[in-house]
């Protein structure tokens, strides 16, 4: 590695950024955590009692799985932003900040004197990001917007689950998606600032995020006259597609999306080349129309073979497949990367590796430590009181 690359390797992409975030739960903390992973200094503003996500569970050696996942590498500053002195300190922080993120209830930050538009007028380079449940206008503006409720309101649960039994997606997908959209918006604002010198405002809501994902079902409903229904592991317009039990008690999923794969499945996996031209199954629409017969046929074949044998045949034939794994099985998956993180207690645990891998970063490097409630409060007060005095 030459000297230039060595220097670059020690400078993460956000290493010169200061991010200040009044955050709680998942969406905003996960967003700011991305910037911490990228090298930014992230100051997490908490109530004196701490972010309530700290107490969601005790699954990680007595600490919250949600909090550990979304808060490593940050500094924790406890403030009461309604208190005049604490508000003054926050204003001092924001005068030096590059990014301000908040996911308080709609209007709460403005009532406390931290309206995003006002802040950008005061600090021209500041980028603000407001994350909400339903946006800052409309009749749903003040509705509670927990992830599950947004999944329900947006129709996500209506297209998930099994027939007759709509189901919640088993992770906080609206929170996660809103966080990713916030990151995209902030990155775009940073790029714009690099050209214009001016900060801008980003607004993201959980509902808008879910609505975007629901575009295809929405178009089917509005223009096609019929919404997709929950089909479990199946697909409403593709067959064969789904999970099938094996002789040794596992479930393998297959997804046949073109005629070439269909022919190979019949000839090289099932061992019946003539099945590909069966009048019931000879094209994609016929396979969907006769799904029950087709699924029964494939189910019988899978039930007579072990997972290992089927996986070998499917892989050799170039047929798309995957295991329908439990979380326990997933935890031992050969493709699962791990990355260490140090808990408040000082113990170390392994999280899933970051989804983004940089060419200049050691993939074995640990994430930053989980901060204790208010751990950095006094140090930050001293630092920014000095900064204010020197201005």
Q: Which spans have pLDDT < 50 for at least 5 consecutive residues? A: 1-9
Residue-averaged pLDDT, rounded? 92
- Class of the largest domain in CATH? Alpha Beta
Helix content: 40-55%
CATH topology of the largest domain: Rossmann fold
Assign the CATH superfamily of the largest domain: Crotonobetainyl-coa:carnitine coa-transferase, domain 1
- Major pleated sheet: 6 strands, parallel
Total individual domains: 2
Structural class: alpha/beta
Oligomer: single chain
Number-wise, the strands total 13
Number of helices, where a helix is a run of at least 4 consecutive DSSP H or I residues: 16
Rg: 26 Å
Named at the architecture level, the CATH assignment of the largest domain is 3-Layer(aba) Sandwich
How would you write the strand order of the largest sheet? 3-2-1-4-5-8
Order of H and E elements? HEHEHEHEHHEHEEHEHHEEHHHHEHEEH
Protein name: CoA transferase
Keywords: Plasmid, Transferase
Organism: Rhizobium sullae
GO molecular function, one term: transferase activity
Walk me through what this model shows.
Keywords: Plasmid, Transferase. GO terms for molecular function: transferase activity. This is CoA transferase. The protein is α/β, with parallel strands linked by helices. The protein has 2 domains: 14-214 and 336-390, Rossmann fold, CATH 3.40.50; 241-323, formyl-coa transferase, domain 3, CATH 3.30.1540.10. It has helices at residues 3-9, 27-37, 65-70, 84-96, 108-111, 116-122, 147-153, 173-196, 206-213, 215-224, 259-270, 284-289, 291-303, 307-317, 327-330, 377-390, and strands at 18-22, 41-46, 75-78, 99-102, 127-132, 161-162, 165-166, 201-205, 241-245, 251-255, 321-323, 338-342, 348-352. Helix 2 (27-37) packs across helix 8, helix 8 (173-196) packs across helix 9 (206-213) and helix 11 (259-270) crosses helix 14.
């Amino acid at each position: 590695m030459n000297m230039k690359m060595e220097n670059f390797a020690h400078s993460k992409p956000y290493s010169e950024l200061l991010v200040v975030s009044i955050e709680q739960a998942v969406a905003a903390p996960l967003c700011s955590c991305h910037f911490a992973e990228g090298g930014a200094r992230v100051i997490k503003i908490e109530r004196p009692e701490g972010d309530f996500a700290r107490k969601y569970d005790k699954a990680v050696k007595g600490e919250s799985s949600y909090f550990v996942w979304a808060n490593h590498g940050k500094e924790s500053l406890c403030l009461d932003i309604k208190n005049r002195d604490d508000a003054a300190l926050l204003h001092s922080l924001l005068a030096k900040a590059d990014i301000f993120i908040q996911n308080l209830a709609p209007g709460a930050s403005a009532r406390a004197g931290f309206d995003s538009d006002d802040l950008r007028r005061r600090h021209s380079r500041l980028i603000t990001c407001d994350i909400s449940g339903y946006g800052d206008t409309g009749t749903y503006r003040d509705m509670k917007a927990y992830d599950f409720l947004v999944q329900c309101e947006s129709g996500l649960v209506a297209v998930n689950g099994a027939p007759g039994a709509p189901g919640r997606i088993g992770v906080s997908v609206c929170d996660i998606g809103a966080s990713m959209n916030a990151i995209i918006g902030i990155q775009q604002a940073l790029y714009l600032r690099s050209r214009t010198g001016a900060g801008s405002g980003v607004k993201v809501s959980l509902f808008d995020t879910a609505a975007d994902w629901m575009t295809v079902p929405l178009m089917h409903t509005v223009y096609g006259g019929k919404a997709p229904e929950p089909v479990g592991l199946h697909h409403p317009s593709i067959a064969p597609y789904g999970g099938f039990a094996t002789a040794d008690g596992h479930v393998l999923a297959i997804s046949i999306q073109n005629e070439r794969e269909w022919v190979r499945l019949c000839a090289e996996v099932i061992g019946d080349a003539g099945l590909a031209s069966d009048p019931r199954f000879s094209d994609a629409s016929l396979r969907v129309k006769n799904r029950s017969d087709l699924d029964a046929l494939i189910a019988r074949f899978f039930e007579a073979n072990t997972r290992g044998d089927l996986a070998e045949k499917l892989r050799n034939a170039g047929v798309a497949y995957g295991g329908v794994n439990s979380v326990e099985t997933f935890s031992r998956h050969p493709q699962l990367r791990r990355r260490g993180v140090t808990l408040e207690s000082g113990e170390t645990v392994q999280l899933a590796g970051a989804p983004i891998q940089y060419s200049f970063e050691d993939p074995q490097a640990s994430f930053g430590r989980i901060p204790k409630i208010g751990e950095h409060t006094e140090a930050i007060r001293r630092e920014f009181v000095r900064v204010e005095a020197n201005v």
